[in-house]
Automatic annotation (TrEMBL):
<dbReference type="InterPro" id="IPR006098">
    <property type="entry name" value="MMCoA_mutase_a_cat"/>
</dbReference>
<dbReference type="Pfam" id="PF02310">
    <property type="entry name" value="B12-binding"/>
</dbReference>
<dbReference type="InterPro" id="IPR006159">
    <property type="entry name" value="Acid_CoA_mut_C"/>
</dbReference>
<dbReference type="GO" id="GO:0031419">
    <property type="term" value="F:cobalamin binding"/>
</dbReference>
<dbReference type="InterPro" id="IPR036724">
    <property type="entry name" value="Cobalamin-bd_sf"/>
</dbReference>
<comment type="subunit">
    <text>Heterodimer of an alpha and a beta chain.</text>
</comment>
<dbReference type="Pfam" id="PF01642">
    <property type="entry name" value="MM_CoA_mutase"/>
</dbReference>
<dbReference type="InterPro" id="IPR006099">
    <property type="entry name" value="MeMalonylCoA_mutase_a/b_cat"/>
</dbReference>
<keyword id="KW-0846">Cobalamin</keyword>
<dbReference type="InterPro" id="IPR016176">
    <property type="entry name" value="Cbl-dep_enz_cat"/>
</dbReference>
<keyword id="KW-0413">Isomerase</keyword>
<protein>
    <submittedName>
        <fullName>Protein meaA</fullName>
    </submittedName>
</protein>
<comment type="similarity">
    <text>Belongs to the methylmalonyl-CoA mutase family.</text>
</comment>
<dbReference type="GO" id="GO:0004494">
    <property type="term" value="F:methylmalonyl-CoA mutase activity"/>
</dbReference>
<dbReference type="GO" id="GO:0046872">
    <property type="term" value="F:metal ion binding"/>
</dbReference>
<feature type="domain" description="B12-binding">
    <location>
        <begin position="555"/>
        <end position="684"/>
    </location>
</feature>
<dbReference type="InterPro" id="IPR006158">
    <property type="entry name" value="Cobalamin-bd"/>
</dbReference>
Amino acid sequence: MTERPKDRPWVMRTYAGHSSAAASNALYRRNLAKGQTGLSVAFDLPTQTGHDPDHVLARGEVGKVGVPISHVGDMRALFDGIPLAEMNTSMTINATAMWLLALYDAVAEEQAEEAGADPVEARRRLAGTTQNDIVKEYLSRGTHVFGPGPSLRLITDMIAYTVTEIPRWNPINICSYHLQEAGATPVQELAYSLSTATAVLDAVVAAGQVPQESLGDVVGRISFFANAGVRFVEEMCKMRAFVQLWDELTQERYGVQDPKQRRFRYGVQVNSLGLTEAQPENNVQRIVLEMLAVTLSKDARARAVQLPAWNEALGLPRPWDQQWSLRIQQVLAYESDLLEHDDIFAGSTVVEAKVAELVAGAKEEMARIEAMGGVIEAVESGYLKSALVASHAERRRRIEAGVDKVVGVNCFQGTEPSPLTADLDTAIHVADPDVEERAVEAVRRWRDERDADPDRRAAARDALERLRADAASTTNLMAASIECARAGVTTGEWTDALREVFGEYRAHTGVSSAPVAGGPDRMSTAEDSGVTDWRGELADVRDAVRRTGDELGTHLRFLVGKPGLDGHSNGAEQVAVRARDAGFEVVYQGIRLTPEQIVAAAVAEDVHVVGLSILSGSHMSLVPEVLTGLREAGATDVPVVVGGIIPDADARRLRELGVAAVFTPKDFGLNDIMGQVVEVIRRARGLDSRPE
């Protein structure tokens, strides 16, 4: 048998980072030793939103969903013993992307000098990606800091710097991943992310920092970060549609003639939204199917892949869980014959028809956005956010109604006891509870030691003054940022200096303009139909809300709160929309609220229940503060319910502290949740069980 030559495998990563720079460095070394071929750095929420660990909004968030990086010393520790000039590093960082790249640049310089190498040449060898897609932050992930104008300025400055100084670096990663998590259909994913890319490239052209003849180099370094759900055929066709649309767009709109520069280059993490807490072992086959959607088609194959772990709906995965996901990639790449063949879908009439359908739909939606003035105008008007909230609401309704089947959740729910989750408290990674205290002490010690030295204090002060001055002008901000990095400026100081010039931005929530719940009329509940009486359930809850309000002599008011820095607002938005549809008056002020602000709003709005949504793991820090605040404010008859990724042990403790109900991903039926909230209100107000 003739041996076929194999294509080179995609870059294999796991998304990792937690607790501290030193702990994350140890994890990276272990993962690289297991055959991982690139790094994907997860930063904690304070770092992503430009706060030092001792900021009030950082409470409970430090080291939870990623690694805290406060200054160049932390970045130095994060990559200790890992030569950056030989590494491919992806950094999931957006609003503070310029700052993290500046720190990375500074450490690469230090490593080169220590090795006796040329720092300039070392910088030119740096390979990797900063995610840096601010538009999707306004729509889905919520780690934005500045408004659209300043954010585009930071992106264009990074692009202009990297295209000449770090030519192998991808300065932006247009990210459709979180759009799908927020409810986007494949057509919306295509249209919104490509419209974002258009806005970025238009801004680069308008800024004039890159000569026209180098625009192809810019296009060649634009990358994408995609999502792949379990609908295998549709997701694979979506990626082929991306390839076609990007090739057309960059040639026709920007005149790029080199096909290599027009190549659609993307990395992927497959869908985490579809992972279930119920029967979580089913997540393994979901992850495999989703990976196949972005690897089987050679003409649309991902350049880098990172897979979630089977237990991410339960909490943070352990190193062993991440190893399992890495091994899934390795088996496909090294044991199968996939990489020996050309595209196995070429010529398929089914695939061609589906791709054509997606392309046509995306072009229609892109034209609609263009008519509004572009993606920034579509963000600021609230159109895009409302569309995503509506799409997500429809997707949830279909699952709740049983129209869309989710194995182990709304069908085939009978199960044998799973050895994987026999002890839920050990089935996930638990961050060291002392991480935050140590990080707070460390950043204060860093600032104190820096400022105790007159020369270092002056260098930091001068660097920040230059940053403010450059921000107030049209000067490229990368040079000032790198100077700040070398001078020992902290993440919070860098961001605060820009906040003084650019201000801060609160994005649309999309809740008030989302359409009222629709769906089928009363449907059969026959056992063989698998479809529930969804609208009947909602009507029953509406009746209970109305009758309870009548008994209390008022309308029931439900405050939905997002304490801390967790910007994953999809769940909170869906709870708010369903509560509105169930007849509650809803108070929802968006993300990034302190416990004190939530308590103040609950008292001012005279609400009957407070619902807190936390997915970042900070529930044990923030929820008790809300409970204490309500008691101190005299609102002892206002119950608190909590939703999020909450381990059983934490849920038990929260109930002991006074939380009336805890909801986790297994509680997928929003109508049922609304019914339970009514019961909670009735108990808190001394009423009988649900009204007859």
